[in-house]
Amino acid sequence: MRSVGVEEELLLVDADTGEPRAVSGAVLASAREEEELEKELQREQVETGTRPRREMADLAVEIRRWRGAASQRARAAGAEVAALATSPLENHPSLSPGDRYRRMAEEYGLTAQEQLTCGCHVHVSVESDEEGVAVLDRIRPWLSPLLAMSANSPFWQGEDSGYHSYRNRVWGRWPSAGPVEVFGSAERYHEQVRSMIETGALLDEGMIYFDARLSRSYPTVEIRVADVCLDARDTVVIAALARALVETAARAWRAGEPPTPVGVGALRLAAWRASRSGLSGDLVHPVTFKPAPAETVVRALLDHAGAALSDAGDLALVKEGVEEIFRRGNGADVQRAVFDDTGDLSAVVAEAVRRTVA
User: In this entry, which stretches build a coiled coil (predicted)?
Assistant: First the structure.
C-alpha cells in the first residue's frame, strides 16, 4: 500500500480580534525538536507535516497531533492557529526572514507581499520518477473536484470574494502555478522543469508550483491543489482520495491506457469553476468536460477511484466523509454560515480556531 504524508499551512491569529499575527518566529523557537512545524513565506503562518503513513487512522492521529502542537505553541506566543486558507480580516502580511524570501519579495512584488494563503499538500509514494510522471499525466482532470471539496477561503481583505477558494485565485499569480500539460516521460518532465528555470522567471526548482508535481525531497507525487481544510476529517478524506487517484493512475499506466488528451486551457477553466462554485453549483465534469452538478462530479470521482479506495480499505471512510461534507458544506460554506449568523468576521475566525483543533 502506498504511503501518504500531509503538509498543512495554518494561519496564526490574534486570540481576541482574529487578525493575523506575525509570531511564527516565537512559535517555531518554542517548538520541541520532534514537533513537525516549519516556517512559511509569511510570519503569520506556520506549516505542519506528518510522517508517511499507510493507514488513514494513523494519518488522522498525526494531523490532529500537529495541529494541537501548533495550537499550543501559538498560545504560548499569545496567538491561536486557524485552518483558514485566507484571512477573512484585512491584513498586511510580513515576510519571514531569509535570503530566499527576500529575493522572492524583490522579484515578484505584490504577488509575494500579499501571498498569505494556506494550502494542503498531499504526498503519495511512487516507485520511480517514471511512474510518478505517468501518474501526473493521468490525474490532471481529477484535481479540480479535490479543490471544490476542500475550498475554505471565501473572504479576502475583509470582503466576500464571491469565490469558495479565493486562495486558488491568489496562488495562481505565481508564474508556474496551475495545471500542466501531459509530459509523457520523466525525462521530458525534468527537461521542462530545467527549461522553465533557465528562463530566469523562477528563482529555483522550489518554485515549480504545479497543481501536482514530483517532490524534490521525497519519492512522492505531491498534490498541491487543495485549500487547507477547516476540519481535520476533511483533510483525511482528501488524502485518501489523493492516494486512490495515484494508485488508479499507476494501474492505468501499467495497463497501457493513455492519459486523457485534455488541454491546459480546459483544466484551467475547470479549476476556476471549482474555486468559484465549490460544491454549491455546477463543476466541469472530468470525463465529459461539460457542466454537471457538484454531487454528480464527486460521485464520478468516487467511481473512478473506487477500486483503489476499496483495496486500501478506505472506501467506507471516504464515502462517509463525502456525505458529511455535502451535509455540512465545505469550509467556505461553514465560514459564510457563521458570518450570516453574526455579521462579524472575527466570529468567523473564532469558529475556525475552535474547529481547527476540535
Answer: none
Q: d(Cα 340, Cα 351) in Å, to the nearest integer?
A: 13
Domain ranges of the chain: 4-356
- Please list the alpha-helical segments (H only) found in the chain: 24-30, 56-76, 99-108, 110-113, 129-139, 143-150, 166-171, 186-198, 232-254, 264-277, 294-304, 306-312, 315-328, 331-342, 345-356
How do residues 203-260 score in pLDDT, each as one tens digit? 999 999 999 999 999 999 999 999 999 999 999 999 999 999 999 999 999 999 999 9
The single-letter DSSP state of residue 334 is: H
Report DSSP letters for 308-329, one per residue: HHHHHT-HHHHHHHHHHHHHH-
Please spell the DSSP secondary structure of 157-192, one letter per residue.
TTEE-S-SBHHHHHHTTSTT-B------SHHHHHHH
pLDDT tens-place string over residues 312-345 = 999 999 999 999 999 999 999 999 999 999 999 9
Q: Tell me the whole-structure pTM to 2 decimals.
A: 0.97
The helix or strand, by DSSP H or E, that contains position 119, with its residue range, turns out to be strand 119-125
Task: Confirm or reject CATH 3.40.50.300 for domain 4-356, answering yes or no.
Answer: no
- Look-up of cell digits 505553541: 73
